[in-house]
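Quick one, probably user error.
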């Protein structure tokens, strides 16, 4: 099918042709982007008798958003979990769980799960919930709640009983399980142990999960998101991650899955990573809708939980520097395996200590195998100094940024790391000015997947309720923020030649907005809505007729 887009205000993100008023879509791709005269000439050359004309009535049209790092399947599974986002006290958390427990079906075989709480927002007790708190909900059935960051969980007594902490693999991660003065488990588990636990948790079948991922792609389309780069590994029944990938490939070929998914496949051990590569599950796997884009690794935890790994002790808790998931030697080995297979390693690292280790590991892999050029990256890269940022440029490391994080983090960063580090961190404009690739994302469901919230935070350096600004000198232009959410995201997944811009020859993935994002007040950015979303030339979401 040939479509003629007329009367549009097109922000292309293409430096060679930044603005246009008309475009021609031939099947899945743009055939022309420019003015009406050129569009008519293109249509004449195509000689298609059934051209569909679409008048956008002057509305702003931009490339589809590409969320560079989220947990899409985790987001989908929140649909069947208790929503604890916004709970303002321990009492409210327990009350919300108790209320939802009334409709819990033990016969499902699933545990009773809630997620999204943050103890820093509690008005009564600013602490992690424990098994004693969760036992107030039930002691008959297993209960688990997950902190908003995804790095801390809590189990009730029944869950602790069912989850055998004496197994060899669990014992290996035992330092991540809190104990009380008597040496008994409190129910609080962290980082690698929590990830191990989640991989063992009863879950819907892989077929059911596939159907859920297809069903809820509509939520992404409503936000103008056409591509996501997503870590799903821990949210699939154990051993079924690659089965899920294959089912999604089939769904894409059948046009049931239209959201473009780039899997950031998480690994904890070198043997598992080697096995995956030996089976052909590398960056060459998949199709134009679903593929494996990177090896995902976890180097540390989160700033809010004080598990992000710092070079120096936390300013507000000198007893800890956070938690490391790998030794330097182990991290070097994992990055080297991915590099040898020409697949990017993208590493979760928030604290400056973890980031330094990641940069060291990447540099060693590059020096050992300079003939390979995978686009390694660091996810989050929150706490940095200026020398560290310059290393990103020197090593050509991609910085995966979630600008909406400052909504919360600006309230704790000075207390956590002190003034000097706080004022050299979250330096997104500096990445841009140095020419460091810096794709934007959200880490959804840690934060909302709404890209306009991230754009607002990047442009204003304020929180979503107007607090701040935090380091206003790091504020970005709207144009740069949109580019980071579109073209930079395409670069991060290795697709900059086929998507991320509105250009002839590229995939016709785009969104039409209800107002001109580039000419509204900064405070209005949060309120922008998507009216239409297109993937491969197909309209997949309509808010209202244009």
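Nope, works fine. Designed sequence:
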């Amino acid at each position: 099918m040939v479509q003629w887009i007329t009367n549009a205000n097109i922000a292309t993100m293409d430096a060679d042709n930044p603005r246009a008023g008309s475009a021609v879509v031939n099947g899945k791709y743009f055939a022309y982007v420019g003015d009406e005269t050129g569009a008519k000439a293109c249509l004449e050359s195509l000689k298609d008798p059934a051209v569909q004309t679409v008048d956008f009535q002057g509305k702003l049209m931009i490339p589809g958003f590409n969320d560079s790092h989220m947990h899409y399947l985790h987001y989908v599974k929140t649909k069947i979990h208790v929503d604890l986002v916004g709970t303002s006290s321990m009492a409210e958390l327990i009350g919300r769980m108790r209320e939802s427990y009334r409709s819990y079906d033990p016969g499902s075989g699933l545990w009773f799960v809630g997620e999204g709480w943050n103890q820093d927002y509690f008005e009564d007790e600013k602490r992690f919930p424990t098994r004693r708190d969760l036992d107030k909900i039930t002691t008959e059935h297993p209960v688990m709640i997950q902190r908003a960051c995804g790095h801390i969980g809590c189990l009730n007594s029944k869950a602790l009983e069912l989850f055998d902490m004496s197994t060899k693999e669990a014992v290996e991660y035992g330092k991540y399980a809190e104990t009380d003065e008597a040496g008994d488990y409190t129910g609080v588990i962290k980082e690698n142990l929590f990830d191990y636990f989640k991989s063992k948790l009863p879950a819907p079948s892989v077929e059911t999960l596939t159907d859920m991922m297809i069903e809820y792609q509509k939520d992404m389309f409503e936000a103008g998101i056409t591509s996501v780069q997503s870590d799903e590994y821990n949210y699939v029944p154990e051993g079924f991650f690659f089965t899920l990938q294959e089912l999604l490939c089939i769904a894409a070929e059948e046009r049931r899955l239209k959201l473009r998914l780039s899997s950031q496949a998480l690994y904890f051990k070198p043997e598992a990573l080697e096995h995956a590569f030996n089976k052909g599950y590398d960056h060459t796997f998949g199709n134009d809708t679903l593929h494996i884009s990177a090896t995902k690794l976890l180097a540390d935890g989160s700033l809010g939980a004080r598990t992000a790994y710092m070079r120096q002790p936390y300013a507000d808790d000198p007893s800890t520097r956070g938690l490391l998931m790998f030794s330097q030697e182990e991290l070097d080995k994992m990055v080297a395996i991915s590099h040898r297979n020409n697949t990017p390693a993208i590493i979760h690292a928030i604290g400056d200590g973890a980031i330094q280790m990641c940069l060291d590991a990447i540099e060693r892999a590059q020096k050992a195998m300079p003939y390979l050029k995978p686009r390694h990256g660091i996810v989050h890269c929150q706490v940095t100094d200026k020398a560290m940022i310059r290393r990103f440029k020197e090593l050509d490391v991609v910085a995966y940024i979630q600008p909406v994080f400052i909504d919360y983090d600006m309230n704790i960063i000075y207390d956590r790391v002190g003034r000097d580090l706080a004022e050299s961190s979250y330096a997104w404009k500096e990445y841009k000015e140095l020419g460091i690739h810096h794709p934007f994302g959200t880490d959804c469901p840690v934060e909302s997947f709404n890209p306009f919230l991230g754009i607002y935070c990047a442009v204003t350096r304020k929180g979503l309720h107007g607090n701040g600004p935090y380091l206003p000198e790091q504020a970005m232009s709207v144009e740069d923020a949109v580019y980071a959410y579109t073209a930079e995201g395409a670069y991060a997944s290795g697709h900059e030649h086929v998507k991320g811009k509105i250009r002839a020859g590229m995939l016709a993935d785009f969104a039409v907005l209800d107002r001109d994002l580039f000419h509204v007040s900064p405070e209005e950015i949060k309120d922008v809505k998507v009216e239409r979303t297109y993937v491969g030339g197909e309209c997949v979401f309509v808010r209202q007729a244009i």
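The longest strand covers residues 290-298.
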